[in-house]
Give the backbone structure.
Amino acid sequence: MVEEFLKRQAAARKVLLAINRSRKRETLPSAHQIADAPLAVSEEHSFYIFRTDTNAVLARGIQGFEAAKSRANELRKSHGLKWDEVKFKAERGNQSSGGSGGSTAAVPKKQFGVSRDGKTFPNASGQTSRVQYARNYNPSKGRRFRGYTDAQGNYHDID
């Protein structure tokens, strides 16, 4: 009974994956396209397993959906937990999305927003400006009003 449920769940994933891919092309997939659609998208992601009652992470860095599913089941049995107390999700962060994403992962992202010392602010185009603090206190933010002036002399509120 459980095996039949898992087979139906895998088939439903294939259908949803094919439908999501076809939305980008704006054509509905045929039955052959659905059957041939691999679950490679979920197999290339890294997953982590966590407890739902305490949000404690039990395992990280598990490659592939099927491996994460089996590892979650092993952890559930070893800790004596119920099915709904153990879940897994795809990890966010520095994951390359194929061939071209690997080379850009080594380049650090430029910080956006006010610097840690609170003196400079890079805007959306990457130009760094000095942050100006007002005399007036903003009670809803819990700090003074702040902003910066661009090269043309226009004042911009930061928050």
Summary: Confidence is low (pLDDT under 50) at residues 95-107. The chain is about 30% helix and 25% strand.
